[in-house]
Amino acid sequence: VHAKNILGDTPLHCAAYYGHTDAVKCLVEMGAAVLAKNNANLTPADRARNKGHLDLAAWLDRTASLSPPFTCSSHIESMSDADVSGALSVLGVSSGGQARLREMVQGIDAASWPEVLKIAMRRCVVDFLVGCGRSERDAARLADARLTPNTTIAQEAPGMWDRLIAEYCPRGPPVPARSPGTKVLVISPGFGIMAAPAQIRILERAYGAAVIRSNQHENPEAAGFDMSTGIRPLLKEIEEHKPAVILCASKGGLYMMKLWSLLKAGGHDHLKAIAYLMINVHPSLETLPTGVKVTLVQGAKEEIWPRPRGYTDTGHCEDGSLEALIRTGSPGLCHLYYTVDRNSGFGYRKGDTHVPSSLLEYDCLPRLVDALLTDLPAVSFQASSRVFLSPQRRHAEQRLGWHLDAVAARFQGDDLRVTVPPGSAEFLDVQAIFMAEPADGVNRFYFPDRGCEHVTISKIERVQNRDLKDAVDNTRGRVKVMKESMGANYEAGVHCRWLFHGAKCATALESIIENPVSGFAPQMGHRDGGIQLWGFGTYFALHASYSVNGHYCDGCRDEEDDCMIMLCLVDTGLSCVGEKHIRRLPLTSNKRVAYMSFTDSESNPEIFVTIGEQAYPAYIIHFS
After folding, report:
1. What whole-number distance in Å separates Cα of residue 596 and Cα of residue 606?
2. Which residues, listed in sequence order, are joined to residue 336 by a DSSP beta bridge?
3. Separation between Cα atoms, residue 345 and residue 325, nearest integer Å
4. What gap in Å lies between CA 585 and CA 591, rounded to an integer?
5. Closest by alpha carbon to 544, among 553, 536, 535?
6. In the Cβ-directed half-sphere of 162, how many Cα atoms lie within 13 Å?
7. Residue 32 — φ and ψ, nearest 5°?
8. SS3 labels along 215-278
9. DSSP of 394-422, one letter per residue?
């Protein structure tokens, strides 16, 4: 009875317009809103009056005067617990009771409860899309396309939030096995459970019933709030559920900082066994606890509590910065997940705001939690993006090998460049890596709609430079030693990768394969006018499509006028997100171990930057 057509008319409007008195009275008995207004701001009585059905209009006016006016507050008061839960579910919230429902419909003026719920539903969808990184205007457009005037709650509500999460928060393949006994406790205040429900929803998608929303809803920033008593309900929940990880965001950080102060004071040793993730670094946080795992999440566009990341051009940390803060905790246990704001012209890596949208892409937030359940969170999180490559590419890389000894085992004769026989296993594996698309469900960040399907490979050459192979092998040895000093294993496919490099011209390519000092030297980028977006060094791409569609190979031609690109085996080691002013790789939080490369993103990296003899140009791919 509350459905509306394109003009905003309900069935009661239509019946009144045509003067069908019996239908009008039947609809009113069934609960139709007598004061509902259409798009022209007309009630059913107005519609009847305008068509000359004056008696019917008068009856509707009397009925309206005898009926108590509809108010959200009184309606919610009369709802059963099941009805309240159902309404909250429509709005994307799983709990909270009548108080939560009143908050979510506050300020909505409508003549009936279904209208109120539909308006609130649109508002929640807009908030969700904004939290996923959409602009207000774009979010409103998408919400209106989904919730048209003809759409009823019964039509759209079932499964709507699951569909939104699936569409706008793509998950990273494959889903890792997660222990059903692993509990994740979310401190509710500040986490955006109502304002930005996507964060809690992707956690629940990953961990299901293991995600516990704290019952402590008091705002720790409210006047008169006493943390000494306010922390007690949270401590009780920790004792009851024994979570492996505790998450907080924004003002909820005050609760987490209180837990850390209790841990430091002693008497709460059980808190040491818990890992902690803080979204939005609280401005009053100056040091991290020692002996526990902590991940901090912050973006370059943080507008509420801005704090500089803190790397100087020489890779040192500035006092008071995020990088300095992360180093106050225990080496190897603390991890800063930071997003830089940089537009390359081929893609805009957006720095996160106070509502970090990058956490919603490819299960980034659950992956950060997964990493906290390992011994070395930063190392484990970096490794988690490995599965974004397709199985076909990973298998091809595995067959080529991630060790230079495997590459050198294929050397034949003393020639520097040897043609790989077309159709051979080696040729097909190189071709598979060159043509590969990402894993199912993953889009390339750069050129997502353009791969290498339009390209024809004419020839593949193997580069047989034994001196260069030995030089890069020595670097690999240093990388392995540094990894082991951190307590981490050197992982093939993570700390060494098959990457692409497009040389400016054939002369530059020959210089690279013959003399690595002048070929892959970082200075070449500056001398030739190269743009150092992610730090000073030599740039490599994860996907061939970046170099091909970015026209980095256009000037590098062979005698047949085909383009040439190099497939390189690169020792990337542990990477950090680069910035254009950084000229030297910083030390990790371990302080004795340096990062080995820069990258454009920690969650889904597609660009790697190295300094030094870390890359072996194993193959030259000729294509047209």
Report:
1. 16
2. 296
3. 32
4. 12
5. 553
6. 5
7. -60, 145
8. CCCCCCCCCCCCHHHHHHHHHHHHHHHCCCEEEEEHHHHHHHHHHHHHHHHCCCHHHHHCEEEE
9. HHHHHHH-SSHHHHHTT--SS-SEEEPPT
Q: What are phi and psi of 526, to 5 degrees?
A: -75, -45
**Cβ(504)–Cβ(551) below 8 Å:** no
The alpha carbon of residue 74 and the mean position of all alpha carbons in its chain are separated, in whole angstroms, by: 40
**Helices (H) and strands (E) in the chain — how many of each?**
25, 17
Quick one: CA torsion of 483, 484, 490, 495, rounded to 10 degrees?
Answer: 0
Say if residue 6 is exposed, middle or buried (CB neighbours under 10 Å; 0-12, 13-18, 19+): exposed
Bond from prior residue into 522 cis (ω within 30 degrees of 0): no
User: Which residues, in sequence order, are bridge partners of residue 540?
Assistant: 608
3-state helix, strand and coil shares in percent for the chain, rounded to the nearest 5: 40, 15, 45
From 4, 285, 287, select the one nearest 119 (Cα to Cα). 4
As a three-state string, the secondary structure of 91-127 is: CCCCCCHHHHHHHHHCCCCCCCHHHHHHHHHHHHHHH
Sign of the torsion formed by the C-alpha atoms of 355, 356, 360 and 363? negative
Residue from 519, 515, 517, 518 nearest 501 by CA? 519
Neighbours of 612 (CB within 10 A): 19
Q: Is the pLDDT of residue 273 over 70?
A: yes
Q: Are 244 and 182 in contact (CB under 8 A)?
A: yes
Q: pLDDT tens digits for 139-193?
A: 888 888 888 777 777 666 777 877 787 777 666 566 566 666 789 999 999 988 7
Structure confidence at residue 66 as a pLDDT band (50, 70, 90): confident
CA distances from 178 to 52, 124, 175, 291, 580 (A): 68, 30, 9, 24, 38
At residue 557's C-alpha, the angle toward residues 553 and 560, to 5°, is: 140
Location of structure tokens 């790397």: 311
C-alpha 541/C-alpha 519 separation (Å) is 17
pLDDT of residue 458 exceeding 80, the answer is yes
Q: Report pTM.
A: 0.79
Within 10 Å of residue 503's Cβ, how many Cβ atoms?
25
Q: What is the largest CA-CA distance in the chain?
A: 104
> DSSP states of 318-348 as a string?
PTTSHHHHHTTS-TTTEEEEEE--EE-SS-E
403: tokens are 């060790």
Reading the block at residue 413, the tokens are 């004769």
Tokens of 121: 């539903």
Structural tokens at position 317: 């940390």
Q: What residues contact 294, with CB distance under 8 A and at least 6 apart? A: 275, 276, 277, 278, 288, 329, 333, 334, 335
Residues in the chain: 624
18-27 per-position pLDDT tens digit: 999 999 999 9
CB 238 within 8 A of CB 271: yes
